[in-house]
Design brief:
Oligomer: single chain
Distance between the termini: 68 Å
Largest sheet: 5 strands, antiparallel
Helix content: 25-40%
Strand content: 25-35%
């Protein structure tokens, strides 16, 4: 899609200089149209996937999902492992009324996250597991209040407490051995 390529090149230009954290559209790669009829119906957005450079050495080029309105407003969805701060697409998703957020719509949102490279499996109901390699990293929860609410939370604070407890134990034994 050349019109979208021009819009993305203008909004996220490649300067030829690597700047950490600055997204730049990579027009040498194909823009892929994503089929999300439920989301398109309730958000008015058309969805695509494109490649962007990040300015970082690791994850230097990533897949980003793009939502575009008819008046060329652009929203981005980035793999949560990389950063949530750039994911402006969450705002229009959270404007969807809960009464409209059925299983097929939630499945389409999960599909969009997977298109960013996120590895996701269903836990139950409206909860999904985000993976970092073989490790359970975060839980994605779709809460149905007045509007759809999407939250990504740590798996368990107990796991964190267990790791801290082990770290303190190891540190105490290290100091005892040093004395």
């Amino acid at each position: 899609m050349t019109g979208l390529a021009s819009i993305l090149s203008e909004k996220f230009p490649w300067t030829g200089e690597r700047i950490e954290g600055q997204l730049a559209f990579q027009k040498k790669f194909e823009i892929v149209k994503l089929d999300c009829p439920e989301l398109q119906k309730f958000t008015g957005l058309a969805f695509y996937k494109a490649k962007f450079s990040t300015g970082y050495r690791k994850f230097s080029i990533i897949d980003i999902v793009i939502g575009v309105t008819e008046i060329e407003e652009v929203y981005l969805l980035i793999n949560p492992l990389f950063a949530d701060s750039y994911s402006t697409l969450l705002k229009p998703l959270e404007e969807i009324k809960s009464s409209d957020a059925g299983p097929s719509l939630i499945s389409e949102i999960v599909f969009l996250f997977k298109e960013t490279g996120a590895v996701i499996s269903k836990i139950d109901g409206n909860r999904y597991q985000l993976w970092f390699g073989n490790e359970k990293w975060r839980v994605m929860i779709f809460a149905l209040k007045e509007n759809l609410v999407l939250r990504i939370v740590p798996n368990s604070s107990m796991g964190v407490l267990f790791r801290i407890q082990n770290w303190i134990r190891d540190w105490v034994f290290y100091i005892k051995d040093a004395l």
